[in-house]
C-alpha cells in the first residue's frame, strides 16, 4: 500500500481538537501561578489533590495533580509518579465518533485501559507502545456554557474523578434499541473510580 492510499483509507472518526493537558507536579502552587500569568488561566475547580484551569470557553485546558499530596513518598520513575505530562486529551465530535474509534481500535487489538464517565466528559484512556497516555473524550453537555457550569458546580466537586463504564455494555444496549446519547448524562456519582484511588481518597 502506498503512503497516499494509506492516508486516503484512514479512519473516518478522528479527534477534532486537542482538548487539554494534565500534568503531575511537586510545585503545585508555583504551577498554578505560572499558568495564570503566562496563559491568563483561571481556576475552574480545585480540591486538595488537583486543579483545573482554562483560558477560554473550554471547561479546562490544563489540570494539575499535586504529587506532594497524592504520592508524597514517590520519587522514582518506576512509581509512575514523577513530574511531567500525565496525559493529553483529544475531543471527538460525538459519542458515535468516539465509539466508532473504539470499535476500530478494538478490531486492531488496541483496547482502552480506562473507560470513565467524568460527569463532564465521557472518556476512554489509551497508552501508546511507549506508555504515553491519552484520553479520547466527548463532552457530556451540548454547550461550553453548560460544561463550565458543571465543572464549577457541586456535582463535579462531589466526584471529579468519575464513574467507570463498560463500553461493551453500552454497545449491547444500543443493539437493543438504546441510543448512545442516552448515556451522556451521568446519573450516578458513585462509586468513584479506583484507578485514581490515591486521588479519590483525598476528595
TrEMBL record:
Gene3D superfamilies: 2,3-Dihydroxybiphenyl 1,2-Dioxygenase, domain 1
Domain of life: Bacteria
Organism in which the protein naturally occurs: Wenzhouxiangella marina
Protein name: Biphenyl-2,3-diol 1,2-dioxygenase 2
InterPro entries for the chain: Glyas_Bleomycin-R_OHBP_Dase (IPR029068), Glyas_Fos-R_dOase_dom (IPR004360), VOC_core (IPR037523)
Key words of the record: Dioxygenase, Oxidoreductase
UniProt cross-references to Pfam families, sorted A to Z: Glyoxalase
PROSITE patterns: VOC
UniProt keyword Repressor, yes or no: no
GO MF entries: dioxygenase activity
Amino acid at each position: 500500500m502506498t503512503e497516499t492510499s494509506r492516508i486516503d483509507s484512514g479512519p473516518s472518526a478522528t479527534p477534532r481538537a486537542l482538548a487539554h493537558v494534565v500534568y503531575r507536579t511537586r510545585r503545585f502552587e508555583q504551577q498554578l501561578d505560572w499558568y495564570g500569568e503566562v496563559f491568563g488561566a483561571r481556576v475552574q475547580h480545585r480540591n486538595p489533590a488537583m486543579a483545573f484551569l482554562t483560558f477560554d470557553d473550554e471547561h479546562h485546558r490544563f489540570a494539575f495533580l499535586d504529587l506532594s499530596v497524592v504520592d508524597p513518598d514517590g520519587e522514582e520513575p518506576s512509581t509512575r509518579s514523577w513530574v511531567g505530562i500525565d496525559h493529553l486529551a483529544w475531543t471527538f465530535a460525538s459519542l458515535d465518533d468516539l465509539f466508532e474509534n473504539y470499535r476500530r481500535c478494538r478490531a486492531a487489538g488496541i483496547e482502552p485501559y480506562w473507560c470513565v464517565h467524568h460527569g463532564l466528559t465521557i472518556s476512554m484512556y489509551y497508552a501508546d507502545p511507549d506508555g504515553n497516555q491519552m484520553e479520547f473524550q466527548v463532552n457530556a453537555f451540548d454547550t461550553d456554557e453548560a460544561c463550565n457550569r458543571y465543572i464549577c458546580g457541586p456535582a463535579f466537586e462531589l466526584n471529579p474523578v468519575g464513574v467507570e463504564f463498560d463500553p461493551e455494555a453500552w454497545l449491547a444496549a444500543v443493539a437493543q434499541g438504546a441510543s448512545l446519547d442516552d448515556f451522556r448524562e451521568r446519573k450516578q456519582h458513585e462509586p468513584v473510580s479506583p484507578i485514581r484511588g490515591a486521588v479519590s481518597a483525598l476528595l
